[in-house]
Amino acid sequence: MDIKFLLPIFLAASILVSGCTSSPTTTTTTAPTTTIPATTTTTATGATTTTSSTTTTQASVKEFSITASQWKFEPNTITVKQGDTVKLTLTSIDVTHGVSIPTFGVNKQIDPGKTATVQFVADKKGTFTFACSVFCGAGHSGMTGKLIVE
Ligand SMILES: [Cu+2]
Predict the structure, then answer these.
(1) Out of 7, 55, 85, 97, which residue is the most buried by the measure of CB atoms under 10 Å away?
(2) Domain span at residue 114?
(3) CA of 111 to the centre of ligand 1 (A)
């Protein structure tokens, strides 16, 4: 084998290698923000707003401070108007309690010495029981209150 014969091959090979490595196209692949169109499922019936009460109920924010202790809520009855945004500020003066109002998707733990807040829209009329959702002793099952939405 002659060196003159090998040289062009070597050169060609080195160009190829350098050609590949010298241009590192650093494409920073940022994840394309695929905006998934919100599938708005419109009800076939066409949303007909129900129950237009004769008295124009002014929806407002109703705030309540509730103290939880073994084994009661104080106050244990709260009354709001349908459509009101209900804001509950809950404190426990002894052990860990909780508050659960399943109809409105409320379930919050109330740690002693801490303030827990929950907010929901009382969009359904009726009398709903709220209950302690964290076992807190012998009287736990009777630790309930009433939410009246009129
Ligand atoms: Cu409890």
Answers:
(1) 97
(2) 61-149
(3) 11
